Structure formats: structure tokens, C-alpha cells
Amino acid sequence: MNSVSVEQIEALLPQTQCQKCGYKGCKPYAQAISQQQADINQCPPGGQQGILNLAKLLAVAATPLNTQFGIEKPRQVAVIIEQDCIGCTQCLPPCPVDAIIGASKQMHTVLTSACTGCELCVSPCPVDCIVMQAIENNDKPAEWNKEKADLAKNSYAKKIIRMERLKTEKMQRIKKQKLALKKIKS
Ligand code: SF4
Ligand code: SF4
Ligand code: SF4
Hints:
The chain contains four helices and four strands. The protein is mostly helical.
């Protein structure tokens, strides 16, 4: 295997952040490939072309996509059947790129231009009102490209930073509450 950086490997991944490879996003998968802990054929959105690109970069043999991780299929986007949405907000946290807009007890909607088609919002919906739809015509966002991949990568990075900040703030709040309780008891 050629000595290449994680960044070089990551640059060849689609950035849908779908986790189908078994890792929590494209970067962790790139890191696993770099450390020879993962095979290069685990990314269904990248498909056979993605495997060929990785094989060339790493100077290893290309293998068929491992279908245990999913199959290659045309790009889809999520659509919320709005009249069925109960506004539970459960689809918001799983979306890696914040492509869903909505608030508690309000109808939610997907920003199709931002949706990576990762499908991570589908199963958390308790009323099954999120469906994946193939891109069929020019009214829908075009096929996946480098511009969209870069946008998704940045959005995911921002979401991770925000989630980390919220986690830290929550921990600090709990710590303060515990200290306050301790003072009351003493
Ligand atoms: S697109 Fe999905 S399967 Fe491919 S590397 Fe990124 S997270 Fe993994
Ligand atoms: S809306 Fe759903 S399918 Fe689209 S990016 Fe967000 S979680 Fe993935
Ligand atoms: S999970 Fe389903 S019901 Fe809940 S807000 Fe999202 S789309 Fe609406």
C-alpha cells in the first residue's frame, strides 16, 4: 500500500456521511483505511468508481463493492410527507448536515439542496413519514458532485463542533447543579 495521508483518502470519499461503511462518517472511514483497519470496498455511495479511485491512490488491487455494507444505487433525497409529520423533532439529530428544518410540534421539511441522501433520518421517524425519492428531473438537485461533497463535508464538520459544544455546556450545567445541591445539603 502506498503511503498516503488521511486527507488524500478522504478527498476520494463522497461525503454523504451516511455511515454505511460502518464508521461515523467519511473521515473516520478514511482514517481506518489509512491504518489498514478497513477495506477500500465498504462505501456504497462511492460505488465501484470510488473503489477504483482508492485502489489507484493506494496502489492496491480493486475489489468489488462489499454488499454487506449496501448496494450502489441512484442518488436519492429525503422527502417528508408533511401532512403526516407530528413535529416530534426526532429526525433532526441524526441528520449529519442539518438538512431538516423544523421545531417541536411543527411540521418539518427537508432542504433538498442540502440533503446527501444518507437515509439516517428515515428509521428514527416514529410515524414513517420520511421517504427517500430518486432524483428524476431537473427540478430536483443534480447528481452528486464535488461542490455538493465539499458543502456536506463542511456542514458535517460544523454540526460535530456544535454537538460537542452542547455536550460540554450540558456537562457544565450538571456540574453546577450538583455543586448547588451539595451546598444546600451541607
Ligand atoms: S459516504 Fe457513507 S459509506 Fe461512504 S465513506 Fe462516507 S460515510 Fe462511509
Ligand atoms: S435529510 Fe435525511 S437523508 Fe437527507 S441528509 Fe438529512 S438525514 Fe440524510
Ligand atoms: S421524525 Fe418524522 S414525525 Fe418527527 S418531526 Fe421528523 S418527520 Fe416529523
